[in-house]
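Minimal example, chain plus magnesium ion.
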Amino acid sequence: MLVVSSKVLDRLTPSQRDLTRSLADIFGAAGKELHLVGGIVRDALLGRARLADLDFATSAQPPRTRELIESAGASSVYLVGERFGTIGAIFGEEPHRLHVEVTTYRREAYPEAHRFPEVAFDATLTDDLGRRDFTMNAIAVDSDSGEVVDPWQGEADIAQALVRAVGDPDERFAEDPLRLLRAARFVSQLGFRLDWRTEQAMERQASSLARISRERILAELTLLLLGEYVDHGLDALRRTGLLHVALPEIEPLTTEAEADLAPRLGREKDLWDHTVRVVRQSPPRPAVRWAALLHDAGKPLTRSVGLDGEVHFFGHERLGAELAYRALGRLNADRALRSSVRTLVELHGRPAAYDPTWTDSAIRRLALDTGEVWDDLLDLAAADVTSGREHKRIAAAQRVDALRARFQHLQEQVELARLESPLDGNDLMEIFDRPPGPWIKGVKNHLRELVIDGALAPDDRNGALQIARSLLAQEEASPVGSAATTAKQSADATRPR
Ligand code: ATP
Ligand code: MG
C-alpha cells in the first residue's frame, strides 16, 4: 500500500482516515474515482477538526456506489434521495460511528427551455465542483492519493478568508437562492468576508429569497445566529438587504432614522449596533440568540419623546414579544422555540431592574412567569448591557448575578422544606400504639435531621422505623430526658463534622 502524505487526509481523525482508506481501496479496485468533498475538506484546510460526517463524490453510478459501500462493511446503507444520487451509510459503533454520504458526480442539465434544470449523472469531477456554491466548498481531495483538486482556487480564497461564489455569482444565486443565506452563514461561522462581486450579486438577488421554503430559511438563520462571528454574519444580512426579506420585523431597527436619533439616546450608537452586540454577547443557544436578535424589535414602534426631551419606549417589550412570535411563526418555527422567545423578549428587561428590596414573592412570581427559560432570561439580561460606561456595565451584571443567587437560594429553601421524616405522626402513633403527644415531634425532628444530613433516605420507612424504635427505647431507659432533647443530641451526634 502506498503511503501518502496529504495536508487534508493527514488532518482527519484516525477513524475518518481508516475509513477513507478502505473506501479508496474498494472504489479504486472497481475502477471508480472517489473524492472527499465539501465541508470536511474546507475545514481541514482551515485547520478546523471535524468529528462527524464525511462527504464523498464518485464517478460510480448510484446502484454501483451502493454495492461498493455495502462491501466496505457499513452497518447500514440507505438512499438519501434518488434525485440527488446520494447513498448514505453508517460505519462503526459509538463513539467511533461515522456517517458517510457518497454522491455521484452531477451536473445541471437543461432538457427544455423554461424548465427547471434536471440533475444528470454523466458528469466529471470538474463539472461536479463547478455546480457547488462557494469556491471554498468546491475543492476535492482524492481519497487514494490525497491530491487536492481545486479548479476554482478555493484554497486561495480560504487563505484570504473570502466567501466567493463559484463562477458567475448572479447565476449561482438565481439557481438556488438558499445560497444567499449560506453565504452569510459562512461569514458568521468562519469569520470570512464576502467577496465584493459576490456581495453585489447578493444585494441584487436578495428578494429571490422569498422562493425558498420557510423551514430552510429558519434553519440557515439559526446556524448563522449560533456562529462564532455572528456580528459579521448579521451585518452581512443587513448590508445585502437579506435581513429585510427574511425578517422584516426587525428591519426598522436598522433604518437611518434610528441612527439620526442616536445622539439623543446618548448611550448607544444605534439600535442595530446594540442588537448585534447583545446577540454576540449572549451564549450560543438557539432560544437566547433568537431572543437577543428580536429583543428590541418593539422599540422603533413605541418611541415617544417626553416633555423633558427624554426618549421612551413604553410597552416595547410586549409589542416586541408579539413581533418575535409572529416572525418565528412565519418561519414555521416549532412551538417551543416560538414561545420561549416570546417569553424572553417580553421579560428581557426585568432582571436588570432587580434590586435587593425585591421580596421573595416578587422573585418567585418572575420565575413563574419565565418558566423553563429562567437561565436563558438571566443570560439574555446579562448580555443586554452594551453601555460604553464600564461602571454601568458592571452594576448591571451585578444586579443579574444577585438575582440569580437569590433565586437559587429560594430554590434550595424549597427543596429543604420538601425534606420530611419518612414517617409522619399518624405512622408513629399506629406503629408504636401510643397516644398523641410531644414524643411525636421529637422523633419526627430527629428523623428529618437525618434526612437533611443525607444519613437517611426520605423514603426509607424501614430504616426510619429502626431508628425511631431505638430512640424510644433510649428514652424509656433514661426517663429524665424527654424524646425531644434526646432527639436533638443524637441528631447532633450523627451530623457530619
Ligand atoms: P456544514 O456541513 O458545516 O454545514 P458543508 O459545506 O458541508 O457545511 P453541506 O450543506 O453539508 O455544507 O453541503 C455539503 C457540500 O455540498 C457543500 O460544501 C457544497 O459543496 C455543496 N452544497 C451544499 N448546499 C449547496 C447549495 N445550496 N448549492 C450548491 N452547493 C451546495
Ligand atoms: Mg456537511
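Residues 114 and 175 are 13 Å apart (CA to CA). Residues 483-497 have pLDDT under 50 and may be disordered.
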